[in-house]
Amino acid sequence: MVFWPLSLMLIIHRILVLSVNGSVTDDFSTVYFALRRFHDGVPIYNEVYHHVDPHYLYSPGATLALSPLGLLTDFDSARMWFICLNAAAIVAGLGVLTRMFGYALSSAVYPGAVFFAFLTEAVRNTLVFSNINGVLLLAFAGYLYCLLHERRWAAGLLIGLAILIKPIFAPLLFLPLVKLNWRTVGTGVLVPVIMNVVAWPIVPGAGDYVTRTMPYLGEVRDYANSSLPGIATYYGMPWWQEKFWFFFFAAVVAVGVVVLLRWRYTDPLLWVSTTSGLLLAGVFLLSSLGQMYYSMLLFPLLFTVLLRRSAMHSPVAWIAVYCFLSADVWFSDEWLDLGRAMHYLKPTVGWALIVLTITVAAVVWWWQERDGRAATASEPPTVPAHPIRTPGVPHPDRNRKDDDDRLQTDQ
User: What is the pTM (predicted TM-score) of this model?
Assistant: First the structure.
């Protein structure tokens, strides 16, 4: 009664006001007109990459998968349908996560999660910029749900499609790999490979993706880029300093991932949600391009706050959440340089903090369990208060009258 009305008003506002108004950043137009060129038989990888406009960066296989969107000939209608689809996918994805964590959709957890999500910068800008991240959140949530419920083919199909659209999901194949779940790993690899093989002779100018687009994807741009390499490029960080922080945080991620393996069988829900969050936050922080609205993919990690044990039980974790999900603008008329730095560094600091928090929490859990086992092993054996009963021999404290009565009854 509290959260659903609030959530409904937020959803309506985000779709009918913010999204309709649009923004200078427009991810939809680039994709839509590229798909229209695909249907018209015109080469699609003809971008001028030294301009700062959004570019079409999807692979030929992803182009083929998204091609039905280009069949809609009216641009405004296609954009509104796409925005509504992503909004619905976000709501559905949060529903999947609610059920995954053991709560009914009729509980306050589901509308509370929707309310919180639609307050974030990630959801707002996904809808305003009109990109596909809402659908990817649903695919990601479905992937985790299928992993936990041993639906291996479905999990592989979902992660394969997600990797096809955005390769940043590829590290998540680590989750089934360490459990030797070859069906999920194989399907997750084959889906993007097969789609690209099928699309290569169909997509006009597919070869340009390798010669022109892929080199651009490897470059670190100095605008709209919150990753560590992007921030280092923007501020002119010395080379040695950038590499030091890069390898430091890469080591932090690696340590956290290894230590969390301890719970892959004993607490799979915690392990899957926390490890996937750690891997994705590491990708956002260390890759050549990290944009703040990617943080929507950390929602499963945030749901672990509902568990008995979670890295999200730390206040530092929620400072990190504020940094990478808050829509607050820190530009200041009084403190120009400080305000600009805080605004640009907000998501970078948030991703760095959440990576550190998860790894420290995992190491502390491991250490506590190690000390607990050591203490138990060093304790002397406990002497029972009563003699141990031998099968078939009556207990010495048993009432003889009860034995006699039972014997008489048997006779």
Answer: 0.89
